[in-house]
Amino acid sequence: MSQVIPEKPLRVVVWSTGTIGRHAIAGVDAHPDLELVGVWTSTPEKHGKDAGELAGLGRELGVKATTDRDELVALAPDCIVHGAMTDDRVFESIADLTALIRDGVNVVSSGPVILVHRDGTLPAEMIEEIDEAGRQGNASLHVNGIDPGFANDVLPLVMTSLSQRIDHVKVSEIADYSTYYQPVVMKDLFGFGQPMDAKPMLWEPGILSTAWGPVVRLIAAGLDVTLDEPLVEHVERRPAGRSISTASVDIEEGTMGSVRFQVVGTVDGVPRVTLEHVTRTDAASDPDWARPLEGDGCYRVEIEGEPMMKVDFTHHGEHGDHNVSGMIVTAQRLINAIPAVVAAKPGLVTPLDLPLVTGRGLVTGTGGAR
């Protein structure tokens, strides 16, 4: 399927003004096929402030942020770019997103990541509730980003188009999170800076398969493979070798400083699809674990079979930081998918349902990106 080209600019609301939202505001403003018409904020102090100010653009956009959900729905936007935090309120956010598409607004969202793929994680009746809401509102919901998202769904599946035989697909995030600002994720979910005997939710049995299992299942579905159930989880946490201060949490020597985990999909007991994260808060730590070939982080795709293939995908911002660019690529994957999602069938849509998504119109000096 070829990419979707809208006949006129699509009217877009950005939902949140934080880590992802501020970059989404800039991304929508820069896109020639999109028009920013509204911004939602959860912070009362931001209500009434111009979107350009909240995004740090140094200029006003003439769009004021609001805490009023219904005010934004009443604008009848073509799509909402939803970048609000969902990791600590998964089912509440599913209810929020379902209500939006029932109200007739298409949504692209960075979470909850459990919705990256339709099958095998949530009960089928919950997915049907989303689909029914989409049919009622004639609107679609697409959850994606960079990880879970492009780096471990579209990229590896595109690479498999070069394969003659596939024995094993492994997708990895290898990153230093010391400059990543998300205190809830870093301290409460991962447990960085907490005693090694603490029990953050992320490491409870089954949680990794809930959060990242949809990625493993999506790759398997794209390759027409039926996996054994349940998925297999491996976790290795290590203490910090020295005290360090990160953007989100101070980490004392001996408290949790790094983790490596895997979610593995097997067929008849043989690993066929593996998702791995190697997450450091000190770039010099754990030299025996996988490292990026350059910079502070990468996404790695390894395909065993005929031929053997490996790709390292790296990114960094104009001013060097890979965690800032991580938020940008997350937002842009969603933003650039808007025309395809608006044109998609109602209900929950995944990368397997969408046509080619590109950065069409964003080449500078061609009348596109500003």
Automatic annotation (TrEMBL):
Superkingdom classification of source: Bacteria
Domain Dihydrodipicolinate reductase N-terminal: 14-81
Molecular function via GO: 4-hydroxy-tetrahydrodipicolinate reductase
Protein's recorded name: 4-hydroxy-tetrahydrodipicolinate reductase
GO process terms (BP): lysine biosynthetic process via diaminopimelate
Keyword NADP: yes
CDD domains with a match to the protein in the record: nat-AmDH_N_like
Domain (2,4-diaminopentanoate dehydrogenase C-terminal): residue spans on this chain: 152-357
Lineage: Bacteria, Bacillati, Actinomycetota, Actinomycetes, Propionibacteriales
Keyword Protein transport included in the entry's annotation: no
Keywords: NADP, Oxidoreductase
Enzyme nomenclature, EC number: 1.17.1.8
